[in-house]
Amino acid sequence: MKERFRLKLTNKIGVIVDSFGIGVREGLKKAKEVGAQGVQIYAVKGEMDPDNLSPAARRELKSYIESLGLEISALCGDLGGHGFQDRAANAAKVEKSKRILDLAKDLGTSIVTTHIGIVPHDHSGEVFDAMQGACEELSQYASSMQGYFAIETGPETSAHLKGFLDTLSSKGVSVNFDPANMVMVTGDDPVQGVHTLKDYIVHTHVKDGIRYKEVDPREIYGALGYEPMDHGKIAEMVRSGEIFKEVPLGEGKVDFDAYFQALVDIGFTGYLTIEREVGDQPEIDIRKAVDFINRYK
């Protein structure tokens, strides 16, 4: 416990509104109630789809969020499927991703988190080339408006992800660091991962988990030749606890004393955004998560 009281977190706490499962407006009010300063919102379909929000509706939503004393830490623009591995699907996905970043900027944030598909080890293959081309276009677009597409950690090790990011011409494609995904899927060390990816981390998720057995990340996150990524399927895997399990903060294998210290050490000042993808009592779990983080402040 000594470590916990030595470090002093100053980061704002965010909550993924969708984790409450009660809709955007009610979720925003609930985020305020549980003590968050910011929120992350899925913006792929339904009422938050950029196509469904007029300029007036965007101004009204931004004003409403500000009236609650909240700000947006990021939007989630994860389009699922095979990420950007399938060249034939990339043009439409890149265009949609750009529109989500436009929406993010209109709502007062510069970050859109996403999954891009698992980065292949073979840099000379067709899949790597398709992913690299799509991410290069997104990176340049984001940089042109001082924004970021933040890739969520988990599908590959931090060193492998850094190797891919280093091939891009700007940091417009960066990292949304999720320590639990690393623990649950690749078995990578989140503390080392923070230092490896220190130049790219623009947003984080606060989540905890346990891995029970090794698994091919392609079985979880999808890849060409495998089932496409499906959030519902992943949530069911997490819930069943057969391969890995997401658990409340402090009950899993993420060493938060060392992890938070690593974020302080690299000078990360962005959001710590709570994600709770499973459980029958998300509000209770999220309140506990806010209290857990506040103990480090």
Give a structural overview:
Pfam families: AP_endonuc_2. This is Sugar phosphate isomerase/epimerase family protein. One of its GO terms (molecular function) is isomerase activity. This protein is α/β, with parallel strands linked by helices and 297 residues long. It is 43% helix and 15% strand. The chain has 12 helices and 10 strands. The strands form 2 sheets. Strands 1-2-3-4-5-6-7-10 form an 8-stranded parallel β-barrel, surrounded by 5 helices. A two-stranded antiparallel ribbon has the order 8-9. Helix 4 runs parallel beside helix 5 and helix 8 (190-196) packs parallel to helix 11. It starts with a helix and ends with a helix. The model has no long low-confidence stretch (mean pLDDT 93).
Q: What is the total tally of β strands?
A: 10
Query: Could you give the distance between the termini?
Result: 14 Å
pLDDT < 50 runs, ≥5 residues: none
Structural class by SSE content = alpha/beta
Largest sheet: 8 strands, parallel, barrel
Strand neighbour order, sheet with most strands: 1-2-3-4-5-6-7-10
Roughly what is the average pLDDT, rounded to an integer?
93
Helix content: 40-55%
Order of helices and strands: HEHEHEHEHEHEHHEEHHEHEH
Rg over alpha carbons: 18 Å
**What share of the residues does DSSP label as strand, in percent?**
15-25%
Shape: globular
- Please count the helical segments: 12
